[in-house]
Specification:
299 residues, Thrombin, subunit H, 16 strands, 11% helix, eight-stranded mixed sheet, six-stranded antiparallel beta barrel, globular, mainly beta
Length: 299
């Protein structure tokens, strides 16, 4: 900790850990849920992306309220970590037109797509290429020299159970479980097999080559000279609470949403609030609460 109470990162950490953001939903000052969001960098500035059900407080398929007290969020708080932890308030109610959501939905799928976007050009001085998702394809990827197919390894990077990793998100390894070119239920979704949990909704999903990995292309082997990360889509929950099969909205769908938000969505304002809704690392996560069911006391 530094003198101001912020967290200093003096050791190495993976760049992707700086992309996922912790988000909490509130009704007034009553906390309702926590999840994950991230920013996509566009030519028009940063665009915040998360799951629609995080903002509506309802299951995106059944419409059932998710909070046991039937609370519906009217604002959210995004936490950005750095030398100092800061919190940005998002108003989810359009006071000029209360019947309309303050976020932008997919241009053709609308409410069917469990993804939403908020253009936040004013965050351009904080969100840059190093801590956001880029949807631009490199020359090599445009040439389709490699595909991530069914069975390929991936990472869901988010905040299960809140900030259990302190300022950084948790990496959950999984595998592509369905043919990625086949849409599930007629929607731009593929399935993954991953032990993801509550709070990871809205997490970016990544595949990567590590330095030294061998890739075969046109019957020739190539070795990666550096780590290459590729954004696959946005995680939005499991098929069933007892299943490890999860849903990922495809990269192409996110790209359509972001482009639509830039063109037609209203720029959103995120108000900096350093003390109100301040997160507490020690209170939000207790090891005792999580290990008590998995370990027996030794006499």
């Amino acid at each position: 900790m530094n003198e101001k109470g912020g967290h200093e990162f003096k050791r190495f950490f993976d760049g992707l850990s700086g992309v996922s953001r912790y988000i909490r939903m509130y009704f007034g000052q009553t906390p309702l849920a926590s999840g994950t969001c991230f920013f996509v960098m566009s030519a028009d500035g940063p665009v915040l992306v998360t799951n629609r059900h995080n903002f509506t407080g309802r299951d995106n398929i059944t419409g059932k309220l998710l909070h046991k007290g039937c609370g519906i969020p009217n604002h959210a708080v995004v936490t950005l970590h750095g030398p100092e932890e800061v919190h940005y308030h998002i108003d989810l109610v359009d006071h000029t037109n209360p019947e309309m959501p303050s976020w932008t939905e997919h241009p053709t799928l609308g409410a069917k797509a469990d993804i939403v976007a908020l253009p936040v050009k004013e965050m351009a001085n904080i969100i840059g290429e190093a801590n956001s998702v880029s949807l631009e394809k490199s020359v090599s990827l445009q040439a389709d020299w490699h595909r991530w197919d069914v069975g390929s390894e991936l990472q869901v990077i988010g905040y299960p159970y809140g900030q259990i990793g302190g300022p950084f998100p948790i990496w959950s390894k999984g595998f592509i479980a369905s043919e990625p070119d086949v849409d599930i239920a007629g929607l731009p979704i593929f399935l993954i097999d991953c032990k993801s949990r509550t709070g990871q909704s809205g997490s970016p999903v990544w595949a990567r080559f590590k330095t030294g990995d061998i890739v075969t292309y046109k019957e020739k082997d190539y070795q990666a000279k550096q780590t290459i990360n590729y954004f696959l889509g946005t995680y939005s929950g499991r098929l069933h609470r007892d299943s490890d099969l999860g849903l990922v909205w495809k990269r192409s769908c996110i790209e359509e949403l972001v482009n639509h938000a830039i063109t037609h969505g209203a720029q959103h304002r995120m108000d900096l609030r350093r003390h109100r809704f301040s997160a507490s690392f020690s209170k939000e996560f207790s090891l005792d609460r999580f290990i008590s069911d998995d370990f027996e006391e030794v006499e």
